[in-house]
Amino acid sequence: MIIGVLKEPSPETRVSLMPEHVTILKKWKADVYVEDGAGINAFATNEKYSEAGAAIASREQVLQKADIVLSINTLAESDLQNFKGKILFGLFQPLFNPGLIKQWAGKGFSVFSIDMLPRTTRAQSMDVLSSQANIAGYKAVLLAANLFPKYFPMFMTAAGSIPPAKMLILGAGVAGLQAIATGKRLGAVVEVFDTRPAVKEEVMSLGAKFVEVEGAADASKAGGYAVEQSAEFMERQKQKIAESVAKADIIITTAQIPGKKAPVLITDEMMAAMKNGSVIIDLAAATGGNTTQTKNAQTVFFNGVSIVGNSNLPAAMPSDASKLYGKNIINFLQLIIDKEGNLSLNFEDDLVKGTCIARDGSISNDRVSQALEALS
Ligand code: NAD
Fold first, then answer.
1. In what order do the strands lie in the sheet with 2-5?
2. Is residue 229 annotated as a catalytic residue, yes or no?
3. What's the CA-to-centroid distance between 137 and ligand 1, angstroms?
4. Which of 169, 260, 322, 356 is least surrounded by Cβ atoms within 10 Å, i.e. has the fewest?
């Protein structure tokens, strides 16, 4: 079997596999074609891929040779016309792109989207959402520290005392927990909101304060994810959040609900009460953002507050992001490559079935089908 690795379109800096992952695939008797320069932004040169046993080729050659093509972002129409294989594998966010997936299915491709991997214990080593969100949480705090015109830690110096920065984190999933840990390491005082009471202990074990709002909808059957909340809960939550927002110097927002628009948790009125020079990093920007002012992939200024809308912070740390992403992919590929290096798809396996979103000419995943129906 031949696995193709494509160069991602700008501004993406990551790559699906690093040279070390090619070495593993070669041991499994699979061949790898890597597009010329695919790893360059992640500091993985063509030479390193060649040393690991990959063939370096043009984009057209990769698409014509590969049985499975790996990419992080969705492919262009011209790529599909060139692609001679049958399997597209990537991080396609199908709940937000169901129409595109339907088109691909109609062209006869089988599509695997690693963000649809069921979040079970066995799947943890393949979970790109976690490996990448961890980076996003870490980078969000570093970015905030760079933009913030004051210190994070408390200082008592001969020239006077500096109070610690007050950080507020909305959403204590993987990114939020890493943001807490990073903020604490830098010396900030941290407060946290989440609708899932299950995260309270984790938040407190990291040394942050968990602000509880009673009456959240039960998310215990949603596979670890959040569910949509009632208008009445959202109103009460907003009042509590407003008190914390007014005190905060730095806010990191990460609140998301899979397949839905992100909840708006910070209003113009709340931001108007913030101190000049405060910073908001909105990691939910790509799905609408958690503030009323967020613009995806842009920084906006509102009443002296910087609001950075960036949902692709893993791309700001391309080497480690690609190293972890690639290892997640390798761990998944192990499920679908047999001992002779051939493709072996076992749809009885819940991880293979859950990650495959299209096959035999149509969408094969219930959540993607529902997202498509919701569009019509
Ligand atoms: P996410 O990116 O979907 O959401 C981020 C956070 O925002 C979540 O904690 C969510 O509860 C919170 N949120 C949503 N609406 C909110 C609101 N109105 N107010 C405040 N917070 C709100 O989450 P994620 O980081 O991808 O993961 C969520 C959880 O999934 C993890 O904490 C974990 O329990 C579980 N998980 C399981 C596995 C596994 O078992 N393989 C792997 C990763 C994550």
1. 55-57, 31-35, 2-5, 68-70, 87-90, 110-113, 356-359, 362-363
2. no
3. 13
4. 260
| Mean pLDDT value of segment 40-45 | 98
Active-site residue, 127 included: yes
Average pLDDT over residues 282-302: 97
Pocket mutation for ligand 1, best pick of 170, 225, 233, 251 (most atoms within 8 Å of C-beta): 225
13, 17, 21, 41, 71 from 50: Cα distances, Å: 20, 13, 12, 17, 19
Question: Which candidate, 72, 125, 123, 128, places its Cα nearest to that of 349?
Answer: 123
pLDDT tier for residue 308 given thresholds of 50, 70 and 90: very high
Q: Is 13's pLDDT higher than 70? A: yes
Name which of 174, 208, 216 is nearest 192 in CA terms.
208
pLDDT in tens, 96-108: 999 999 999 999 9
Residues 281, 308: contact at Cβ < 8 Å? yes
Residue 224 reports pLDDT greater than 80: no
Among the four given CATH numbers 3.40.30.10, 3.40.50.10790, 3.40.50.720, 3.90.1600.10, the one describing domain 2-108+318-375: 3.40.50.720
Best of 114, 130, 227 for a ligand 1 pocket test (most atoms within 8 Å of beta carbon) = 130
Q: Whose CA is nearest to atom 14 of ligand 1?
A: 255
Q: What is the mean pLDDT of the chain?
A: 96
Q: What is the DSSP string of 213-248?
A: -S-PPP-TTTTT------HHHHHHHHHHHHHHHHH-
- The predicted model scores a pTM of 0.94
Residue owning tokens 């070390």: 20
Q: Which residues contact 299 (CB under 8 A, 6 or more apart)?
A: 306, 307, 308, 309
Q: Is the pLDDT of residue 186 over 70?
A: yes
Query: Residues 322, 327, 328, 330: what is their CA dihedral angle, to the nearest 10 degrees?
Result: 120
For 235-259, how does the pLDDT look when each residue is reduced to its tens digit (9 = 90+)? 888 999 999 999 999 999 999 988 8
Domain ranges of the chain: 2-108+318-375, 132-316
